[in-house]
Design goal:
elongated, DNA-binding, 6-stranded mixed β-sheet, alpha/beta, homodimer
DNA sequence: GACACGGCTGCAACCGCTTGTCATCCTACA
DNA sequence: TGTAGGATGACAAGCGGTTGCAGCCGTGTC
C-alpha cells in the first residue's frame, strides 16, 4: 500500500538502485535523471521505509534515553535538550523511565540496545560495579555520573556548593545540615563530599541526614529531623526535598530565610515559584543534554577519540529568599 | 558480530526457519527439538534483531507519543503511564516534544508515522480542521481532545469545574475570573465553557482573561490583571498559572485563601506543595495514558470497533487552602 | 498391505533498501 | 582511428528475520 522504491523505479522506467542513489547520494547520478526521479518520487508521495533502511545500513538512527523519573523536574529540561539536539541531527529518541528502580536500568538497556544506535543514561542509579555492562552493550554516554573508561557529561556541583556554603558562612551560619539523596546516587556522593569539603574550608559544622528520595514527601519527612536539630541552615540534595521541607516548616511557623536558611540543588522552575522563593544551585541540565547527544554522535561516527571524553559543566548559586542571616 | 538466527540454526544443525518457529511459535515444533534450540540460543546469547523482525512482519512494536511540553507537570504522569502500559505489552515509546509549537505536530507526526505502529497525541494544539490528516497517517489515539471519527480519551473537566464553582459560590463568591489557556487549546475551550455554564447555574458573575501560556511566568503576569479587577476568586486554566499568580499576589501581600480564592486545574504534585496549598481540580492523567495505550492496542489488533471508542474520564475538586470564604 | 492423514521440518520467497561490481557508452587524447 | 578512462546505471547479493508450501516419515484404518 505504501509506495516503495521499486514503484518509483518502475514509474521512471529505471532501476531501483538508481532511484536509491538519486535520493541519498545525488552526486552519483546524472543531473537530469536525478531531477526526473525526484519529481516522480515527490508526485507519488514516496517516502523511504526507515525500517528497511535500518536493516540495510545497520543503523537505526535512534538513541535510547534512560531516565530515573520523568516527573522529577530535574529531568525534563535535559530530556528536551536531548530531543531537540537529536532532532537536529535526524535522530529519534526512545525514552525509558525506570521509575527510580536501579535494577531495571540494565534490563531496559539490554532491550533497548538492540533497537538503537547508542544509549544515553541520565543519572543512572546502577551500582558502579555493574556500569561496565552498559558499555559492553552499545555505545554509551553517561550524564551526571563519571564512569571510568566511558564517555560522560558530568555536572560538577562543587563550585555551586562551595558558593552555597560560603554564602551561609558569610551570614553567620556555623552549623548546617545536608539532607542526602538516594544512597546509590552518584551525584549524592559528589554533593555530599563537596558540602563536606566546603564546610571544612569555611569552618562550619556539618550534620548529614538521609537518605531521602528526591521527592516532595521526603522533604516533608525531613522537616521534623531538621526542626529538632540545632542547625541554622540546610542544604538539600535537590529542590524537591528542599521545597517539601520548606512547606512543612512553614506549617510549623518556621519561616525559611528568617528562622532557618534553606538551599536546594537543581534550580528547577519551582524554586522561583515557591514562597519564599528558594535559593538553589543552578545545574546546567539543558547544556548537559545537548553535550550528551554531541558526544554520542561523535562516538557513533568514526573513531572514538582515545581518552574517552568527559565533559565537565559548572554550577553556580542562585540566591533567592530562602536564605538569610543567622537568627541570633 | 551479533549472533543471528542462522548461527543458532547452524549450531543446532537445523534450518533457520525451525529455529524461528521454535522461538516465536512453539506449538509448531517438536518439544525436544524446541528445548534443544532454546537452550542453544540461550547459551549463544542469541537475541532477535528487532529491525529485521519489524521489516518482515511489517510492524515495529513502537508507539509514537507526541506531547506539547514535557516540562509541564501535567504531562509526565501521562507519559509515565503510557510508557509503563506499553512496556507491559512489549512496545516501546518514541517520544516527541513539540515545545508547544502547534505547527510542528503534523510534521513530526509524518516523520514518526513511518517508524511506529500508531500515534498517541496528547493535548494536540493543531487546529481542528487539520486533525484529520493525522488519522490518515496512521492509527491514532487522541488524548485530552475529542476528535470526530477518531479514537480519543477525553477528560471531562465539567464535573470538577462545576464542583469548583459550587464550592466558591457556597463561600459567598459572586464575581469570579477565569484565566484562559492557549487560544488553540481544545481543553481550554472545554474548560472555559464549563466554567461559564457553571457560573450561570450558580448565579455567579464571570470575567474571562487571557490567553495565558501554561507557564508559571504567565501566572505572574496575570497577577496584575487580577489585582485590579473586582473578582474575589480565580479559576486558572492550569496549576502553573495558578501557582504563578499566587506567588505574585503573595509578594503584594495578597494572601490566597484569605484575600482571594484561587483554584488550579490538574492537581499536579506542586499544588500540594505551594504555600498556601493550592485547591485544584484533579485530572486523571495516568488513567488517561493507560487507556490510550489500551485503545491503541485494540486499534492495532484486528478490526477496530465501528463507532470508534471515546473514553471519558471524570475530574473532581481537591480542596486545599488557597480557597476560602469571600472577604467581607 | 495400501492409503490417508497429520505432525515436523526444510526450502525458498519475501519485506524494502543499500551498495559493490560490472557492462555500456561516450569523450578525449594520442 | 584506436583505446584508455570516466560517467552512468543495471544487476544481484545481501541485511536478518518470517511464513506459505511441500516433502518426509510414522501411524492408524480398512
Amino acid at each position: 500500500m505504501a509506495v516503495t522504491l521499486a514503484d518509483v523505479a518502475q514509474a521512471c522506467g529505471i532501476s531501483a538502485s538508481t532511484v536509491s542513489r538519486a535520493l541519498s547520494d545525488p552526486e552519483k547520478v546524472n543531473a537530469q535523471t536525478r531531477e526526473r526521479i525526484r519529481r516522480t518520487a515527490r508526485e507519488m508521495g514516496y517516502s523511504p521505509n526507515s525500517v528497511a533502511r535500518s536493516l540495510s545500513i545497520g543503523r537505526t538512527g535512534m538513541l535510547g534515553l534512560i531516565v530515573p523519573d520523568i516527573a522529577n523536574p530535574f529531568f525534563p529540561p535535559i530530556i528536551k535538550a536531548v530531543q531537540s539536539r537529536a532532532g537536529q541531527k535526524e535522530s529519534a529518541v526512545l525514552l525509558v523511565d525506570t521509575d527510580e528502580h536501579a535494577s531495571d536500568e540494565l534490563d531496559r538497556a539490554r532491550t533497548l540496545s538492540k533497537q538503537v544506535d547508542g544509549l544515553i543514561l541520565i543519572s543512572p542509579r546502577t551500582p558502579a560495579e555493574q556500569l561496565g555492562e552498559f558499555v559492553a552493550l552499545a555505545p554509551v554516554v553517561f550524564v551526571n555520573r563519571r564512569v571510568d573508561g566511558a564517555a560522560s557529561v558530568v555536572i560538577d556541583s562543587s563550585d555551586g556548593i562551595e558558593q552555597a556554603v560560603q554564602h551561609l558562612a558569610a551570614m553567620g551560619h556555623r552549623n548546617i545540615c545536608y539532607l542526602g539523596g538516594p544512597r546509590l546516587s552518584w551525584s549524592n556522593k559528589q554533593r555530599q563530599a563537596a558540602v563536606s569539603a566546603a564546610c571544612e574550608r569555611f569552618g562550619v559544622q556539618l550534620q548529614v541526614r538521609g537518605p531521602f528520595e528526591p521527592q516532595i514527601q521526603a522533604g516533608v519527612r525531613a522537616a521534623d529531623l531538621v526542626r529538632t536539630s540545632d542547625c541554622t541552615a540546610v542544604i538539600a540534595y535537590d529542590d524537591l526535598i528542599a521545597l517539601g521541607l520548606m512547606a512543612r516548616l512553614t506549617e510549623y511557623g518556621v519561616q525559611a530565610g528568617r528562622d532557618v536558611s534553606i538551599i536546594g540543588i537543581d534550580d528547577s522552575p519551582m524554586s522561583g515559584m515557591a514562597y519564599p522563593t528558594l535559593t538553589s544551585i543552578h545545574v546546567p541540565g539543558a547544556e548537559a543534554g545537548t553535550m550528551a547527544v554531541d558526544l554520542m554522535l561523535r562516538l557513533l561516527s568514526g573513531t572514538p577519540p582515545e581518552p574517552l571524553p568527559v565533559v565537565e559543566l559548572e554550577t553556580r548559586l542562585v540566591i533567592r529568599s530562602s536564605t538569610g542571616p543567622v537568627r541570633t
